[in-house]
Design goal:
The chain contains 7 helices and 5 strands. By secondary structure, it is an alpha/beta fold.
Length: 205
């Protein structure tokens, strides 16, 4: 499938499935659940920055290290925060766990992801790969979220790409030139991005 890849800086969102609003709903309290790797952390950072001017309080938390779902105690904690909005980024949760979370939390639930999975139409599920797009064109949650939020490309946009694809990122013909241009604006290059990924990995040691 051919792709028309947005070049950043005001680009349209990559995909808005039927039933998914163009913008997040109004919320006083929001919770971001994110993967603990470079892609998840950079994705959460972009979403948090976007929401902080729109919400009274924004929390962010990863699952327990090694889990790709929230444990009962973690769901209880999130429920206690009484969030109006919960956003999951870069975690490929099984559909039954997603629907269980939605029922348990009784709030607006969004997921931004880039892993191969069937669309979950019962929630706001933004995942171009789930709808048949090429993973090489949408290589990370950070890239997808940056496009969705219409951000100008920067380090956060491509940090997830460098983390998930490592050296193979240089072979992403539609993506790597965009990465190089964005990094050059900050006097950085791909090896710098790789070092940032390595530093983030030290969090788990």
């Amino acid at each position: 499938m051919s792709e028309n890849i947005p070049l950043g800086g005001g680009a349209v969102p990559p995909l808005r499935p039927p039933g998914v609003p163009e913008h997040f709903p109004d919320a006083k309290t929001a919770v971001i659940i994110h993967h603990w790797d470079a892609d998840g952390i950079s994705s959460a950072a972009m979403v948090k920055k976007h929401l902080q001017s729109r919400c009274d309080t924004v929390y962010s938390m990863p699952p327990t290290l090694g889990n790709f779902f929230m444990e009962e105690r973690e769901l209880d904690y999130i429920k206690s925060l009484d969030p109006d909005l919960v956003i999951v980024v870069d975690i490929c949760m099984a559909k039954d766990r997603v629907l269980e979370m939605k029922e348990r939390l009784e709030t607006n639930l969004w997921i931004f992801d880039h892993h191969r999975i069937d669309p979950i139409v019962e929630i706001c599920h933004v995942n171009p790969i789930a709808y048949g797009h090429d993973g090489k064109c949408w290589p990370s949650a950070s890239f997808i979220i940056s496009r969705w939020l219409r951000r100008e490309d920067d380090v956060l946009t491509f940090l997830g790409v460098a983390g998930d694809w490592e050296e193979r990122a240089t072979n992403l013909q539609n993506i790597f030139p965009q990465m190089e241009r964005a990094l050059a604006r900050h006097n950085l290059a791909f090896p710098d991005l790789q070092r940032f990924v390595s530093l983030l990995s030290l969090i788990h040691i």
